[in-house]
Design brief:
Bound molecules: guanosine-5'-diphosphate, 6-O-phosphoryl inosine monophosphate, magnesium ion
Helix content: 25-40%
Oligomer: single chain
Structural class: alpha/beta
Strand content: 15-25%
Radius of gyration: 21 Å
Shape: globular
Distance between the termini: 24 Å
Largest sheet: 10 strands, mixed
Low-confidence stretches: none
Length: 419
């Protein structure tokens, strides 16, 4: 069997959690392969709302195996909070959530380093989620990281060494902090983690595939936040693109099946960094209000703008997307016209390939399409779609050259139309 991958094509928050939950019945195993608690994946069903951060979104549908892969960075404190809250609401995951021994641990001092580096950047700050993601991946690559498997042997010694290094850096940055309480929580959480199955996930996943089990890999963040291909340096610190699923799970590229690319009918971004189609007017405010565009965990207001087809085409190319999923179509229900950016004007030149740097000099060139002006949130099939919305889908499919297979018209699991 192959691994299907579901990836965000924009700057995150496309609705990955919702669709992974919808697709879960088709799979035996759901995995996360990169990122960490910087993610906030929202699921709404049966009048309940859940926000998942490190735990895959496949936990609510019929006892499937869920795996946190080696490419993930895990904060034991936040993981424990998340798992305990789920257990309290009747979802005990201890027998069906496995954690890779190779996943790297976010230490309390990583969170401090994240804050210190952001403060040192001043106006140029990334606007990170403050969860220690960058410093943890930095330690991984510089070969100083601690992994989940390390908690099983001589952990105190390894921890003391890592902490001493971090203390030195924080001192050099004149960053004042006290992690006594956090440290206590951290060690308690490590004991809690030991109650889960800690596995060599690359072997487990490949064996499951050999046995004929189907796997869905759930991306976090989005392609435009990828450390190599995103709007660097305003990106996250992992490979959010399809290739990240191979390195973050230990599967060969030949094992990848479908690649689901998920995007909003418009575009959002949270944190700093360029955003060519960002709207600073009433239209942007209306999208923000209608789409309830506030961070799932941090509550930060998301910046809103029109869909950017230059960036989307780039993401589709890098990820090798086979199936598109359009989210939050209902958010545009009340607009007279809808705009889609089809090219950039840079220094008088028309550019259709996503450039090395996207900055303030970019002027988006828009195609304007008629809006549909009706409530789509209760629609159950494609046949009910208004003609203008059908035309919007057709236009996007022609531009992007990939079929849109799923359309979402509301946050609930039930508000999903498969074409
Ligand atoms: P993720 O990080 O990609 O999983 O996305 P988030 O959960 O951070 O953000 C998506 C937000 O949009 C959540 O609040 C969802 O409940 C909501 N949402 C998902 N799909 C739809 C949709 O089709 N319409 C509307 N109005 N909201 C949606
Ligand atoms: P999900 O999985 C949206 C953004 C941050 C910041 C940059 C770097 O819910 O789509 P980091 O803490 O990763 O070092 O921050 O990346 N960012 C996200 N934006 N959705 C996310 O995750 C994000 N995870 C990180 O806002 O700009
Ligand atoms: Mg999110």
């Amino acid at each position: 069997m192959k691994v299907d991958v579901l990836l965000g094509l924009q700057w995150g928050d496309e609705g990955k959690g919702k669709v992974v939950d919808v697709l879960t019945p088709e799979y035996n195993v759901i995995t996360r392969f990169q990122g960490g608690p910087n993610a906030g994946h929202t699921l709404v069903f049966n009048g309940e709302k859940y926000v998942l951060r490190s735990i895959p979104s496949g936990i609510f549908q019929g006892g499937k195996i869920n795996i946190i892969g080696n490419g993930v960075v895990l904060d034991p404190i936040l993981f424990k909070q998340e798992a305990v809250a789920l257990a309290e609401s009747g979802h005990d995951l201890k027998t069906r959530l496995y954690i890779s021994k190779k996943a790297h641990l976010i230490l309390p001092t990583h969170r401090m380093l994240d804050a210190a580096y952001e403060a040192a950047k001043g106006d140029a700050k990334i606007g990170t989620t403050g969860k220690g993601i960058g410093p943890t991946y930095t330690d991984k690559v510089s070969r100083n990281g601690l992994r989940v498997g390390d908690i099983l042997e001589n952990f105190d010694e390894k921890y003391a060494k890592a902490k001493a290094k971090h203390d030195q850096i924080l001192k050099s940055l004149n960053f004042e902090y006290n992690i006594d309480a956090l440290e206590k929580e951290f060690f308690e959480a490590l004991e809690y983690i030991k109650e889960f199955k800690l596995i060599d996930s690359e072997h487990v996943i490949n064996n499951l595939l050999k046995e004929g089990k189907s796997v869905l890999a759930e991306g976090a963040q989005g392609t435009l936040l990828d450390v190599d291909f995103g709007s660097y340096p305003f990106v996250t610190s992992s490979n959010t693109v399809c290739a990240g699923a191979c390195t973050g799970m230990g599967i060969a590229p030949t094992k990848i099946g479908k690649v689901y690319g998920i995007f909003k009918a418009y575009c959002t971004r949270v944190g700093s960094g360029p955003f060519p189609t960002e709207l600073f007017d009433e239209v942007g405010e209306t999208i923000c209000k209608n789409g309830n565009e506030f961070g799932a965990v941090t509550g930060r207001k998301r910046r809103c703008g029109w869909i950017d087809l230059v960036a989307l085409k780039y993401a589709i190319m890098i990820d090798g997307v086979t199936d598109l999923i359009m989210m939050k179509s209902d958010v545009l229900d009340s607009f007279k016209t809808i705009k889609a950016c089809v090219a950039y004007k840079i220094n008088g030149e028309t550019v259709t390939e996503f450039p090395f740097s996207i900055n303030d000099d970019i002027k988006p060139i828009y195609k304007e399409l008629p809006g549909w002006n009706c409530d789509m949130t209760k629609m159950q099939s494609e046949d009910e779609f208004p003609a203008e919305f059908k035309a919007y889908i057709k236009f996007l499919e022609e531009e992007l050259e990939v079929p849109i297979k799923i359309v979402s018209v509301g946050p609930d699991r039930a508000q999903t139309i498969v074409r």
